Amino acid sequence: MSNSKKTIFSAVQPSGEITLGNYLGAIKNWVNLQNDYKCIFALADLHTITVRQNPKEFNRRIIELYALFLACGIDPQKSIFFIQSQVHTHANLGWILQCYTQFGELSRMTQFKDKSKKHVDNINAGLFCYPSLMAADILLYNADLVPVGADQKQHLELTRNIAERFNGIYGDTFVIPEPYVAKIGAKVASLQDPTKKMSKSDKNSNACVRMMDDADVIIKKFKRAVTDSNNEVKFRNENTGIDNLIGIYSCITSKSAEEVEKEFEGKGYGDFKKAVGEAVVNELIPIQERFKDYISNEDYLVKCFRKAREEALEISEKTLNEVKTKIGFYL
Ligand code: ATP
Ligand code: LTN
Questions:
Q1: Does 42 map to a domain?
Q2: pTM to 2 decimals?
Q3: Quick one: 142 and 264 in the same domain?
Q4: For the CA atoms of the chain, what is the radius of gyration?
Q5: Which of 16, 31, 106, 291 could form a cystine bridge with 71, CB 3.0-4.6 A?
């Protein structure tokens, strides 16, 4: 990796079965960024325990997700792809940064408000302090850019504030990261309610396409996708169901919205939904096949994440030590 390349950091939580939203909003972009940037990616498993997890399922989900990312094209030779809980610097800097984050700032986070409504019986301190740990993830690697879906922009803004605050007190320490939100794919909506984002944790199984769904299930979900009373494939930029389908289709085929409109001129929603379903199937089936190969070779996966852990430690320990020294701790 050349030093002149900018650094990218991003992470996904192993909090459920990955959806087409995660893929188009995050993973697919990561794969494309690998050639032009120094890329560091993580499975943010420490973040995931802010919501109660079944240990067996959680453990399995982590390795499956690791395999799925490789199947999607994350290349462990090109990028550092590690598991957050294996790199002790995250929890360590996470604690430190909590002490530089204000209660008021955390109270304003929409994800905290949403998740506390969803889990009323377990509004724990981790859920509240989640953004400080996310800031630690990013700042440990001096990331210049952080590719995230639109829903994470608020957390990134807070990360910048924390970094600026720390730099203001102790002198230049952290690089101030910029969000990197791809124009298309940044917000894939639920297939059943286009005003909501497609989410792993949606209870309605028709609302989201999962990466491991069978081809016929995918086609069916798109057939049932909510549209509107028009019958013309036209991008209106109004977050309608059809806008969402055009977004998905153009993201996968790399065609612009205008090109998609032209392709489906004179055709109805039925034809279009079928085409979107087929495009998604063609994208996902090869990934599913590669996933089966990776997951059946656990030794290889373990080798990859152990190597990545060492690489991540080497970079992040330097930052952590600098931070600790500036605060006044003994190393
Ligand atoms: P949960 O349902 O548990 O909140 P999630 O589906 O939102 O999970 P995360 O692990 O929080 O998934 O997000 C992983 C990445 O995928 C983030 O970069 C996020 O911005 C992106 N992402 C998640 N959902 C979408 C979506 N519907 N459209 C585009 N990007 C998304
Ligand atoms: N909070 C993010 C996952 C995440 C992340 C990060 C993303 C944890 N740490 C650092 C970017 C950078 C989420 O829920 N999508």
A1: yes
A2: 0.91
A3: no
A4: 21
A5: 291
Ligand 2 contacts CB of residue 11 (under 6 A) = yes
In angstroms, the Cα distances linking 249 to 60, 235, 256 are: 31, 12, 9
Query: Domain range holding 249?
Result: 215-292
Minimum CA distance residue for ligand 1 atom 19: 149
Whether residue 163 is found in the same domain as residue 250: no
Is there an atom of ligand 2 within 6 Å of 138 CB? yes
> What does 175-239 look like in DSSP terms, one character per residue?
---EEE--SSSS-PBPSS-TTSB--TT-S-TTT--BTT--HHHHHHHHHT----S--S----SS-
Q: What is the pLDDT of residue 302?
A: 98
Task: Assess whether 279 and 305 both reside in one domain.
Answer: no
CATH number at residue 126: 3.40.50.620
Enumerate residues lining ligand 1, CB below 6 A.
Answer: 12-13, 15-16, 19, 21-22, 25-26, 148-149, 151-152, 186-188, 197-201
Phi, psi of 42 (to 5 degrees): -140, 155
Q: Which two tokens stand for residue 206?
A: 């028709």
Of residues 229 and 186, which shows the higher confidence score? 229
For the chain, give the percent of residues with pLDDT over 70.
Answer: 98
Q: Residue 228's domain is classified under what CATH number?
A: 1.10.240.10
Domain membership flag for residue 201: no
Looking at the structure, tell me whether residues 162 and 304 fall in a common domain.
Answer: yes
Question: Atom 25 of ligand 1 has which residue's CA nearest to it?
Answer: 21
- From 33, 137, 188, 316, give the residue whose CB has the most ligand 2 atoms within 8 Å, as the site to mutate: 137
